Amino acid sequence: MSLEQFMSKAVSSWMSSEGPSSDIVLSTRIRLARNVTSYRFPTLYSSQDAKAIVDMVEEMNSNSHHEVELFKINELQPLQKKVLVEKHLISPQLAEHSRFGAVILTEQEDVSIMINEEDHLRIQCLFPGLQLKEALHKANEIDDWMEARLDFAYDEEKGYLTSCPTNVGTGLRASVMMHLPGLYLTQQMNRLVPAINQLGLVVRGIYGEGSEALGNIFQISNQMTLGKSEEEIIEDLLGVVKQIISQEQSAREALVKTSDIQLEDRVYRSYGVLTNSRIIHTKEAAQCLSDVRLGIDLGYISNISRNILNELMILTQPGFLQQYAGGPLSTEERDIRRATLIRERLQLEKDN
Q1: Looking at the record's lineage, which domain of life comes first (predicted)?
Q2: pTM here?
C-alpha cells in the first residue's frame, strides 16, 4: 500500500481540515458523559448489565438512519485498538480494560460514542480548529436523539449522574488542542499553566491526563461540570483560549523580532532532520515537526501544508507505524519506519 492510499484511510477529517485559528488551535473536542437508568454504573455493573447496554445501543443504532458503525472492543486486534487510541477515537481505558466495551464511529470519524468506558455512554465530537460552539451543537444533537430513545440517569438538582463525581452536572468535557511553541520557547508555559489551573481549567498533554505535551502541543479543558450550564462552560473556556492565542501570537512576534535568523535556522535544521533522518524517535520527531509547523505559520516555509503537524503527530505513533508496516515492529524498527514515513510524507507534499 502506498503512503497516499494509507493516509486516505488513516487520516480523520479533523486532522486534514482547517478551522478557525488553525495556526494555533489544532482541534476542538466535546465529550458528554451519560448513563442509562436501571443499570449500575460501569464501576459496579455485572457482565450481564454491560452486555445489555451494548445490545440496547446496537439495536437502537441499527434502526436509525445514521451512517455509523459499531465495533466491539473485544473483537478488535491489539493493534487496531492502539490505532483508535492514537486517533483520539477511544480512550486507553476503553482499549485496555473494557471486556464489554464498544465504540460507534461515523465514516468521517468526527463523532465517536464510547460504550461501557467509565460511563455507559460517552458522546464525543472532534472538529478542526477552534469550534467549541459548533462541536457542542453537534454533540447536543446526538445527545437529544439518544435521550429520546434511552432513559438517562438525571437528578433535578445535580443534573446528569456519572461514575466520577467530577463529571456530575452537565457531564461536559470541552477541550482544545493547542500548538504553543512561542510560549514554550520564550519560557512562559511554566507561568501560564498554574494561572490556567486557577481559572478552573486544566492543561494536559496530547493524549489527556498523564500524557506528555509532545511537540509543544497542549490540551486545555474544563474541570467543572456542576453549577454551570453548558453554554457558560464553553464561554469560560473560549475566553481563556482566546487569551492564550493572543499570548502565543505575541510570543511568536517577539521571537521574530529578537532572534529572527536563529529561529529560521532552528526551523530549517528541524526540516533537514525530518527530510534526511534514517532513524528518529518519537520525542525528536515531535519537536522537529513542531519547529517546521512554526516555520510554516511564520512564512519561512511555503511549500508544505500546515496540516502536516496534525497528520504526522498521529501517523508516527507506534500503532500507526505498525499498521502501515503490516505487523509488529521492535522499538528500533519503529524508529526506522518513523523516519521513512516522515520522509515519504514530506516528499509527497512537495510533489503535490
Answers
A1: Bacteria
A2: 0.90
